[in-house]
Design a protein that fits this description.
Length: 726
């Protein structure tokens, strides 16, 4: 198990300290080499003897390389000192292989394998390789014994074709001579060519009613279809799958990181409220929550309050969202009370004495940010949920006025929630709820909102609004006054769940989970056992029996081979007294992109050189453009990197520090660039410096750009390709 990260106090609060795991080796261990940690030893509390000497013992990694040791400290009198030295880790005979971490199906790799004889005598060596079914070795550079002179190094290039479509590929390389041996095992990810397409469907399964969907997989490339159907027998199942879906997406800002962590709080709160003991789940969730809490507190600004990326000045609405989460977290977790009070005090200091809140004129997301009315309503809702509205007479009065006048369902839902939470017995809240019901559409949704706090668009705009409306009507229905309207809203939300368990963006997902969890507690539906059967294209694809009180999701994920390009039918049949939500997710690759005509962004990527030699640098230029005459909110560019190339983290930090981007994330073959917002008609050019690391011919994953909170409207650009020569 991974060690828990300790904390260190900085000038602006507490921050997690990185923990360096130490593998446990036995004295007899002699390979294969798979441990390539960069930091092999860290000790912040070494004490010397009276002579200023101390001895430490550690095990180096499996890397055959040079290491730098750095010692820093101070004497009893306070005098500081530091020193460095280098040492080498050697074997009498070694091999090294530079592998891409990920490749695309159809790539070719000229895999460099370097053999080294560190002895003072020549040796005859034998090299054996296993590249697995994912690769085809087109010619073998080794025809027999390899002769290595004393102190000699040789590099052999193995030409490989990536023949697998998708999956993980294991590579094993072994060198032996005169009783000596060295061995390396590594794993490479193979991804399909083409543009990724996702098709989803969802709803609520009931006994005696067919839950059937027709999905069109037109243009699906052979071997690229993946599919799953998930059924949610409990709120815990919904929370867990929703969290997993959010983790799979970019999540670099405070709202995204906070929302991804929120389901852990909800799981523990639900288990406590239902007195449902599950020690294993509680322990697992507590561990994940600990890490999430430490991550979140790192977004506090130096002037207090929280911000998208932890930079001054603080963001009032995001701080309120954080305060609401910390209040919920405090019910199940030991939250730093000083930090919470400090955060609340900062937010209170932002009141404008008119019933609203100031918004910093220096705020960096001023383009496309929410209006004062939306900001004030959201902040007050968060404070009311956190039970921090005492003494806020003017602010509550403003929300009462808003709730009596506005016809915007998002604003009305926020004002209703705030009023009913702050003053449950007041008549104003009941009147607002009645007005809110009048805005509900026939399908159960609440449409027509102008904006949300995150400036979400598309489906997420309606999902966030409907979820908040359901929460408000639940508060207004102690005696089931609005049961039909609540049920309609819940059914609509279940019909809009994404295939993997989320609702659009992170804010929509959390509000959706909050609404459905609150409804479960309100309805008190009795858990029932049952049987669920999946039918694919008219044939049974699997049956799952479940017991009363099951918390884990029911998952079918082995039927992709039963699907084909074109139209397919998927049906879920339920035999149970309970009604269970479900979701269907199908993904595949297509030779043509599915760019949305509603996208507000255009994007291009270009390698400034299509050929390079190993070790050379190549610039990948990314251009994005706001095609509208209005400012747009948080924007992402997900830039695909060819397999034999690597990005350089120092350069990405430099881009951020120079203000060319606001933030970045990295994945094995992807650099994700963030902007808090883009001005009208803005154009951005970002050059990413790549290093040609492994010879071969590579195609990058397709790149895309979109507004984070309207993720369904993406712009795709064709993958870039490069040939790297030795």
């Amino acid at each position: 198990p991974q060690a828990e990260a300790p904390m260190v106090q900085q000038a602006n609060g507490w921050a997690p300290v990185r923990v360096f795991p130490i593998p446990q080796y036995t004295g007899a261990y002699d390979g294969p080499r798979s441990d390539f940690r960069e930091t092999v030893y860290w000790n912040p509390a070494v004490e010397t003897n009276a002579n200023g000497e101390a001895e430490v013992t550690f095990v180096a990694s499996d890397a055959v390389t040079s290491f730098r040791a750095t010692a820093e400290g101070f004497s009893a009198a306070g005098a500081a000192g530091a020193g460095t030295m280098t040492f080498q880790s050697k074997l009498p005979m070694t091999l090294d292989a530079r592998l891409p971490v990920e490749v695309t199906s159809g790539d070719t790799v000229r895999l460099p394998i370097t053999l080294a004889n560190e002895t003072s005598e020549p040796i005859d060596a034998t090299l054996s390789t296993q590249f697995g079914a994912a690769f085809k070795l087109t010619s073998n550079p080794v025809t027999g014994t390899i002769k290595l002179k004393a102190k000699e190094k040789q590099t052999l290039f193995f030409p490989l074709e990536v023949v697998a479509t998708d999956g993980n590929a294991d590579i094993e390389i072994k060198l032996t001579a005169r009783g000596l041996h060295d061995e390396i095992k590594k794993r490479i990810r193979v991804v399909p060519r083409g543009f990724p397409i996702e098709v989803a469907a969802s709803g609520t399964a009931k006994a005696g009613q067919a839950a059937r969907h027709t999905l069109d997989l037109a243009g699906a490339m052979p071997g690229t279809i993946k599919a799953s159907v998930t059924m949610y027998p409990s709120p815990v199942a919904a929370m867990t799958k929703g969290m997993d879906a959010m983790i799979a997406e970019p999540g670099g800002c405070f709202e995204q990181a906070s929302s991804t962590n929120y389901p852990n709080i909800m799981i523990l709160g639900y288990l406590n409220s239902t007195d449902a003991a599950d020690p294993a789940l509680v322990a697992k969730t507590q561990g994940v929550l600990t890490k999430g809490y430490k991550l979140l507190t790192g977004y506090e600004t130096t002037q207090k309050g929280y911000e998208w990326f932890g930079q001054t000045p603080g963001h009032e609405a995001l701080t309120a969202y954080g305060l609401m989460q910390f209040a919920d977290m405090a019910k199940v977790f030991d939250v730093d009370k000083t930090m919470v009070e400090r955060t609340a005090a900062w937010l209170m200091s932002r009141r404008d004495s008119q019933g609203g809140f100031q918004r910093s004129a220096q705020a960096l997301d001023s383009f496309g940010r929410a209006s004062p009315a939306t900001t004030n309503a959201y902040i007050m809702w968060a404070l009311a949920e956190a039970k921090r509205t005492n003494g806020m007479t003017k602010e509550l009065a403003m929300q009462t006025t808003l709730g009596g006048e506005t016809r915007d369902p998002y604003l009305l839902a926020l004002a209703t929630n705030t009023t009913l939470a702050a003053a449950p017995k007041a008549t104003d809240g009941a009147a607002m709820a009645k007005r809110l019901v009048g805005l509900q559409a026939k399908d159960g949704s609440f449409t027509g909102a102008k904006e949300t706090i995150t400036m979400s668009g598309g489906d997420s705009l309606t999902i966030e609004t409907t979820a908040l409306a359901v929460l408000a009507l639940l508060k207004a229905s102690p005696n089931s006054e609005y049961e039909a309207q609540i049920r309609a809203g819940v059914d609509w939300l279940n019909s809009k769940r994404g295939g993997y368990g989320s609702w659009g963006n992170t804010q929509a997902t959390i509000l959706g989970l909050k609404a459905l969890t609150a409804y479960t507690e309100h309805a008190r539906q009795m858990a029932s056992p049952g049987t669920a059967t999946l039918i694919v294209n008219g044939k049974e694809a699997g049956t799952i029996k479940f017991d009363k009180g099951r918390r884990d999701a029911l998952v079918w994920d082995d039927f992709a081979t039963k699907l084909q390009p074109g139209k397919n039918t998927i049906e879920v049949r339920l035999d149970s007294k309970a009604a269970l939500p479900y979701s269907v997710a199908v993904s595949y690759r297509s030779p043509t992109p599915a760019s949305s005509p509603r996208s507000k962004i255009t994007m291009t990527t270009q390698l400034l050189a299509t050929k390079a030699k190993m070790g050379e640098g190549v610039t990948l230029r990314t251009h994005i453009e706001n095609t509208t005459n209005a400012g747009i909110p948080m924007t992402l560019a997900r830039v695909g990197i060819p397999g034999g190339m690597v990005f350089q983290t120092w350069q990405l930090k430099e881009l951020r520090d120079k203000g060319l981007i606001d933030f970045y994330e990295t994945r094995p073959r992807e650099v994700i660039l963030y902007w808090r917002a883009l001005p009208p008609s803005a154009k951005k050019d970002v050059d990413i410096n790549l290093l040609a690391a492994v010879p071969g011919t590579y195609e990058a994953p397709a790149s895309s750009s979109y507004l984070y909170y309207t993720a369904e409207d993406k712009t795709w650009t064709k993958p870039v390709s490069i040939t790297i020569e030795k």
